[in-house]
Hints:
A 3-stranded mixed sheet has the order 1-2-3. The protein has one domain (4-98): K homology (KH) domain (GMP Synthetase, Chain A, domain 3, 2-Layer Sandwich), CATH 3.30.300.20. It is an alpha+beta fold. β1 and β2 form a beta hairpin. The chain is built from 5 helices and 3 strands; from the N terminus they run αββααβαα. 50% of the residues lie in helices and 18% in strands.
Amino acid sequence: MxxxxxxxxxxxxxxxxxxxxxxxxxxxxGGAFISVSVVRVSPDLGLARVYISVMMAKDAEALLxxxxxxxxxxRHMLAQRIKNQARIIPELAFFLDDSAEYAxxxxxxxxxxxxxxxxxxxxxxxxxxx
Length: 130
């Protein structure tokens, strides 16, 4: 479980990284829209696991590789933004967040389920139990 300090620090990093991806470096990633879903920070605040969602990109894995290749640039921009609020600028590890795809798959499965209508006998049994 995250401590209050970890939670506050992860929210700060999430907010700043989202701003960096959307305003400062979209040209590095071919105009793809990158949003920061979740940031998990280690207890010593030295490592931040950043989960990103990608839109308007043909290949999410290739974009993730581009993000990882530009980690130093992104970390430097993050350092410029939070240097007065944090002693340590964490190392960044980027991962794809596939929770939206997972939710869409589950919704599709639920849509495919056919539930037969209840017969009158079943309705009567529910209304008037023995």
